[in-house]
């Protein structure tokens, strides 16, 4: 069965510093990986996704993620964060065995401080 | 383009009352999902439909919950009778199904409080 582990529940960081949000997944077959962002009192918005091809995926708002099959990871990175990046970030996985539904991790709250 | 539209945005109801949450997916999308978000359990998939047919309802917590999709542009999630532990944010989402890895688009959520 699929599962997603987000290793950090909260990540505090100062503005303009780099950040990495960690995600590991478990699946027995080829996977599709996603990062979503949820701003306070809003729905989820897709940041980026990996389907195939290049393991480095670029998304919106300057975020990128790298798929590492050997480590079953899909960590999200941004070289310089802004106050406006404060939000909760969710890693998610889907695979052919389970159709196109998503299984989400527990989320990581990114707090950007000035 | 209009996104996924959910109503009501906020609902406060008394224990034992029936609650109906509504969803209009993005036009042309043929997969629809209902998720529940709580602090304790995070985001859980309750049920998903493909071409108006329920494909997987294994996440529906119990018989008090039911979901319908009478046509391609409308779905409901009903809780009867409601209990305080049902308090959560309920998200409807849709995607253009049939291809794995398609982006799932979420609505703004329905914030339910059962007192």
What does this structure look like?
Chain A is mainly β and 114 residues long. Chain A is built from no helices and 12 strands. Chain A is 0% helix and 54% strand. In chain A, strands 2, 5, 6, 10, 11 and 12 form a 6-stranded mixed sheet that branches. A 4-stranded antiparallel sheet of chain A has the order 3-9-8-7, with no helix packed on it. In chain A, strands 1-4 form a two-stranded antiparallel sheet. Chain A is globular and about 45 Å long. Helix content of chain B is 0%, strand content 54%. Chain B has strands at residues 5-7, 10-13, 19-24, 31-38, 42-50, 53-56, 65-71, 74-79, 88-95, 105-106, 110-114. Chain B starts with a strand and ends with a strand. Chains A and B meet through strand 5, strand 6, strand 10 and strand 11 of A and strand 5, strand 9 and strand 10 of B.
Helix-strand blueprint:
The complex is a heterodimer of chains A (114) and B (115).
Chain A: E1 3-6, E2 10-14, E3 19-21, E4 23-26, E5 31-38, E6 44-50, E7 56-58, E8 64-68, E9 73-78, E10 87-95, E11 103-104, E12 108-113
Parallel strand pairs in A: 2-12
Antiparallel strand pairs in A: 1-4, 3-9, 5-6, 5-10, 7-8, 8-9, 10-11, 10-12
Chain B: E1 5-7, E2 10-13, E3 19-24, E4 31-38, E5 42-50, E6 53-56, E7 65-71, E8 74-79, E9 88-95, E10 105-106, E11 110-114
Parallel strand pairs in B: 2-11
Antiparallel strand pairs in B: 1-3, 3-8, 4-5, 4-9, 5-6, 7-8, 9-10, 9-11
């Amino acid at each position: 069965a699929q599962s997603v582990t987000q290793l950090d529940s909260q990540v505090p960081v100062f503005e303009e510093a780099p950040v990495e949000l960690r995600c590991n997944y478990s699946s027995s077959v080829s996977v599709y990986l996603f990062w979503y962002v949820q701003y306070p009192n809003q729905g989820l918005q897709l940041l980026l996704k990996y389907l195939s091809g290049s393991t480095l995926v670029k998304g919106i708002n300057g975020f990128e993620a790298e798929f590492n099959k050997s480590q079953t990871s899909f960590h999200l990175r941004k070289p310089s964060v802004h106050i406006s990046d404060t939000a909760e970030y969710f890693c998610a996985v889907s695979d052919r065995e389970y159709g196109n539904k998503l299984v989400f991790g527990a989320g990581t709250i990114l707090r950007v401080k000035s | 383009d209009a996104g996924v539209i959910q109503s009501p945005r906020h609902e406060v109801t008394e224990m034992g009352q029936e609650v109906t949450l509504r969803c209009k997916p993005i036009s042309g999308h043929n997969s629809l999902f209902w998720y529940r978000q709580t602090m304790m359990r995070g985001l859980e998939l309750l049920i998903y439909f493909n071409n108006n047919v329920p494909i997987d309802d294994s996440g529906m917590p119990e018989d008090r919950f039911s979901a319908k999709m009478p046509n391609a542009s409308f779905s409901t999630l009903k809780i009867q009778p409601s209990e305080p532990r049902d308090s959560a944010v309920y998200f409807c989402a849709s995607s253009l199904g049939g291809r794995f890895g398609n982006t799932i688009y979420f609505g703004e959520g329905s914030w339910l409080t059962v007192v």
